[in-house]
Design goal:
Creatine Amidinohydrolase; 5-stranded antiparallel sheet; globular; binds 2-amino-4-trifluoromethylsulfanyl-butyric acid; binds cobalt (II) ion
């Protein structure tokens, strides 16, 4: 396993990609409402890419047909946008990646529509908070699986959730998916020691039931085997040359969320 080490200049390009992704996800989040289709959200992302001169990273990836992944309710990840109107009470999960100057950004969120079941809201909140704890645990000098352990232990502290085992986070840089693979569960203290120059995409995927999944006949959509509701959050973050983290796909670099966990972000990309 070789982990790609990036220079500050390369991280500047990754930040440009991250901002494009963050902006597009914000545009999509604002557009999500009863009656809107995920194909309309896909078009919003495609338009934003065009306006920023960026390239979609999902379109054509192993034959993937769209610019975003859109997964609703018991669909957890890799759902293909379609004409189904969004309903009240849906959990809508949007995953999106872009390339700028040859460098990637990858990020995802889940959001509830209109009146959300409180247990579904807690599922999403738990998933998002576990992602931030994973990023906070993935500092310079930590072992890779300290991230995995932080994610799993937080999720388990919040209730009985299924943590997907077949999918996880990944290195990111000149390609979307690079070494290392990052499990969302496991013991701390294993794997490579994290150094400055690394960028990782952290993406917990959880359900209110079983961790077991199935893939639909479209060959993409990952659903929970027991049809329980799912959630997915993702950010791409970097360990910058000053040894501090910076969340490339968060508009504020992750400053607020990481400060709440006692972590100071780098100023090198500000
Ligand atoms: N963004 C997803 C991930 O984080 C990958 C999307 S699969 C694709 O791993 F085919 F749509 F690109
Ligand atoms: Co990813």
């Amino acid at each position: 396993m070789v982990i790609q080490i990036k220079t500050l200049e390369q991280f500047r390009s990754m930040r440009k990609a991250g901002i494009v992704v963050a902006e597009a996800l914000e545009l999509m989040k604002s557009a999500i409402a009863i009656g809107v289709t995920t194909l309309e959200l896909d078009a919003i992302a495609a338009d934003h890419l065009k306006s920023r001169g960026a390239i979609p990273s999902f379109l054509g990836y192993h034959g993937y047909p769209n610019v975003i992944c859109a997964s609703i309710n018991h669909e957890i990840v890799h759902g293909i946008p379609n004409e189904r109107p969004i309903h009240a009470g849906d959990i809508v999960s949007i995953d999106f990646g872009a390339i700028v100057e040859g460098w990637h950004g990858d990020s995802a969120f889940s959001v509830g529509v209109d009146k959300v079941n409180p247990a579904d809201q807690k599922l999403m909140d738990t998933c998002e908070a576990s992602m931030w704890r994973g990023i906070a645990a993935g500092s310079v000098g930590a072992h890779l699986t300290d991230i995995s352990f932080a994610i799993e232990s937080y999720i388990n502290s919040q209730g009985n959730y299924g943590i997907l085992r077949e999918y996880g986070g990944h290195g990111i840089g000149s390609e979307m998916h690079m070494d290392p693979h990052i499990l969302n569960y496991g013991q701390a203290g294993f794997g490579p020691i994290l150094t400055a120059g690394i960028a990782l995409a952290i993406e917990p995927m959880i359900t209110r039931g079983s961790a077991k999944t199935k893939i639909l006949s479209d060959d993409w959509t990952v659903i929970s085997a027991d049809k329980s509701m799912g959630a997915h959050f993702e950010h791409s973050y970097a360990l910058l040359p000053d040894g501090k983290p910076f969340v490339l796909t968060a508009l504020d670099g992750g400053r607020a969320k990481l400060a709440a966990l006692g972590i100071e972000i780098s100023d090198l990309l500000s």
